[in-house]
Structure formats: C-alpha cells, structure tokens
Amino acid sequence: MKKKIICLTTVLLLSQNLAMAESDYYISPQVGFSYQNNKVNFEPINRVGPEITKERFKRSEVYDLTLGKKIYDNTFLELEVVHAPNRKFSKTALIEYINPEEEKFSTKISNTSVFANVAYQFKNYIPMPITPYLLAGIGCSFNKIKDIKAGFSNAPVTILGKNGSSFAYQIGVGFLVPITKNIDANLGYRYRNLGTVKSSNQYVDVVSGQSDFSTPVLKGKLHTSDILLGVAVYF
Fold it and tell me: What is the pTM for the complete model shown?
C-alpha cells in the first residue's frame, strides 16, 4: 500500500508540472506488441499430475501515449499511459471429476498502466540524424483478469476473475528519427514490471452454484517486453 501511495503521488505531481509548462512539450502516440517474459502459476483444482505448472499469456497489442516536457538540456519528464487489452490464456489439463478428463481453461488479462518517467536524449552524440534515448519510470498498473472458462463436459465451471492494482516500474530505450522539423519517428523498447495478476478463489458451476477453493487458478507477477512504433510531435 505504501508503494502505491508513493507512485500515485509521483504521477500526480508530474501531471501538475506538465500542466503548468508553457513550452518544450512533446506528445508521442505509439502502438506495438507486448510479450510476457516470465511465467505465472497455473493450479486448477482436482488436477491429475503436477499440481502447479508455469505458463505464459499470449502476446497482446499495446497502445501507448506519452506527454513530455524538457526540464534541462537533454533531460525530460514524461507522463505515460499504456493499455494492453488482450493477453489471452488457454491451457488444457487432465482433471479428476467423475472420471479423469482433459479440460480446457481459457481467459484473458487487460492492463492499463500509468508511469512517471525521466528520459534522457543523446542528441548530437553520433554523426547521424538519429537520437538514441534512455528512460526509467515508476507508476501503477491496473490489472484485470476476466472470468476463466473451464470446459467441464458434465458441469461447466466459471472461475471468477479479479481486478487489482499494483506498483509498477519500467526501463526503456529507443531511437528518434527526424521526419519533419517538429515530428520524429519513435521506435522504442520497454521492459515493464506490472505487478501481480491473479484470479479469484471463487467459482460457479451449474450443480452447486458459487463455491470457494483455497488458491487462485492463475497467480503470479507480470513482466513484459514491449516493442513500440510511433511518432513524437514537438510544440
């Protein structure tokens, strides 16, 4: 909770600073793909075989919008909003129900994150019209895992999803390539730690209604690698 308060305060203070700025703005919309680096625990109830396995979500498209303000020479403050709506998960597991059956579990996660960044542009460091940059930021990630559909043939089960927020951080690199006087192409990479994602410990089936079990079916940290392409517009 303390980390969440700190990151929210930082983001709000940065937003106020950007709102008061009178010049040296830029705005950078980007799109790309987000890939999960690590794996999360997959622990379906009544599983035959390993009780817990490690699994990944599939890649998601990602949408990124950054507002920046020059504060000193090549140093910039940024407010960045990121949305990855479609990290799908699908896994088949052998479940002991009436008889052992292969059952499919499927869901997806969406993430919306807000970061306060400090970025440094290496202008005039190389004899080419390309500007490399580095950035680091902290913020908050709002993670939503949707209901997990479990395809039990005798009694379909829905494992309830869950919303949560976590402290998040990122580091990034990229290149700016001039297109016009006030517009650059922006190619970037971000490594992001988006905190914890997990399903609830409740499920609903057609026989017994809503019930509880001891641990979430999906639980773990979400670390991602994001590839982004867009423009930076200066004004």
Answer: 0.84
For the chain, which residues score pLDDT lower than 50?
Answer: 13, 15-23
* Residue 85 · residue 109 · CB < 8 Å: no
Separation CA 118–CA 42 (nearest Å):
36
Q: Which domains does the chain have, with CATH numbers?
A: 2-234 (2.40.160.20)
The enclosing H or E element of 127 equals none
Closest CA to 166 of 147, 193, 190, 148: 193
CA distance linking residue 91 with residue 150, whole number of Å: 10
CA distance 153 to 104: 10
**Residue 7: its H or E element:** helix 2-20
Rounded Cα–Cα distance for residues 153 and 150 (Å): 9
Between CA 40 and CA 51, with CA 45 as vertex, the angle to 5 degrees is 55
Cα dihedral 42, 45, 51, 53 in deg (nearest 10): -10
The per-residue pLDDT for range 155-177, each reduced to its tens digit, is 677 888 899 999 999 999 999 99
> ∠ CA 160-165-167 to the nearest 5 degrees?
145
Degrees, nearest 5: CA angle 29-193-55: 110
Instruction: Give the count of beta carbons closer than 10 Å to the beta carbon of residue 163.
Output: 11
Instruction: Report the phi/psi class of residue 87: left, alpha or beta, with left for phi > 0 and alpha for psi in -120 to 50.
Output: beta
Question: Over the stretch 173-204, which tens digit does the pLDDT of each residue have?
Answer: 999 999 999 999 999 999 999 999 988 888 77
Q: Do 43 and 52 meet the contact criterion of CB atoms below 8 Å apart?
A: yes
